[in-house]
C-alpha cells in the first residue's frame, strides 16, 4: 500500500482507526458499570477522553495514534480494585488520577522515554509482531471465529454458522481489496461486511445472532441520547491518596506504562513512524499525552486512558501524521448524542480489518537474528506471550526478564544496560503483586 501522506489518505486512515476502536464507547461502560458506575456517565466520559486526548496526540505529538480508555485497565479497575479489594468506585477514580500525576512526573523527567531507549532491539521487533498477533486474536474472537473449546482450550467455530460465514466473506473480500491496493480498502471492507451482515437474525433466525452478541444488523434503540456528566469530578482525591492505596496506584501506573510504551514501540516499528535515531517519532510528546489521558480519565470518571494498538489499522491504511488521530478523535464526539447508532456496525464488520492488520505488523520479526539464540529466545517469549496471555504487559515483562537472565548466563552482561536492571525489578514486583 502507498504510504505517501495526503489529506485524503489521512482522513480515510482516521475513519478506519475510529471504526476499529469505536467498540470502546460501548465496551468500557459495560465493564465499569459492573463496578457501580452509571453506564451513561461512563459512556460520556469515554467519548470525551477519546476525543480530547486523540486531538492532543494529533496536534501536539503529531502521531497517528488514538488514545482512549484502555482495555485490561478497565478490567483491573472493576474486578481487582473495586470488586476484589472492596474499594469504592470514587476512590478508585482518585487512584487513576494519582497514577496520572505519577505519569506526568515520569514524562517530564524523561524517565519513560529513557525506558523505551533501553528496550533491546530484538524485544522491540518481537513486541511489534506480538501486538499484531494480539490484534489478530481480538479480531478472530470478535467474529466468534475462534471460540473456547474445553478439550483443546480454543477451537474454530462451525462454518455453517451464518455469523462465521459473514466474517469469512468480509475477511477474504477485504484481503483482496488490500492486495489490489484499492484506496480506502479497509473502510470499503467494513461497509460491505456490514451490509452482508444484514440477513443475520432476519433470514436465518435470531439464535446464532444472539449467541454472537448482535441481535440483527440494525438493533435500533433510538437516534439521540443526551450526554450524562454525572461522573465529572466525582473522584475521591483525599480518600485515594493514602498508603493503603499506593499498591493500586502503582498497578495502574505500571500496567499503563508498559502498555503504552509497547504500543508506541510496536506501532512505530511496524508503521515506520520513527525518528532519525530509530526511536518512535515525537516520543516525549506522545508519552506526555498518554500521561495527560490517565490524569484526565480520573477527572472525567473512567479508567486510565492509553494509546490504542488498533491505531495500526489507520497506519496500515496509510495514516502517517497527526491528522489521522485528529479525524479519529473527532469521530468520537458525535456519539455523545448518537451512541445508539453504534448498533448499526456489528463486531464482525471490523473483525476482518483487525485480522489483516496483524499480518501488516509481522514484518519486523524478519529483523531478528533467529540464529543467535540469546537474542531470539527472549524475543520469542515476548512475541508469543502477548497473544497467549492476552496481555501486552506480560509479553514485555517476560521478554525483559528472560533477556537479562540469558545474557548474564552466557557471559554477555554488557548487553544488559543498568536501566534494564531497574526495569527488571519493577517487572518482578508486578509479577508478585498478582497483576
From TrEMBL:
GO molecular function: purine nucleobase transmembrane transporter activity
GO CC terms of this entry: plasma membrane
Membrane-spanning segments: 12-31, 37-59, 66-85, 91-111, 123-147, 159-179, 186-205, 237-254, 344-365, 377-406, 418-434
Membrane topology listed for this record: Multi-pass membrane protein
Top-rank lineage group of the source organism: Bacteria
Keyword Zinc attached: no
Pfam family for this entry, one: Xan_ur_permease
Keywords noted in UniProt: Cell membrane, Membrane, Transmembrane, Transmembrane helix, Transport
The keyword Membrane is assigned to this record: yes
Compartment list: Cell membrane
Protein family (similarity comment): Belongs to the nucleobase:cation symporter-2 (NCS2) (TC 2.A.40) family. Azg-like subfamily.
Identification of the protein by name: NCS2 family permease
Species name: Spirosoma sordidisoli
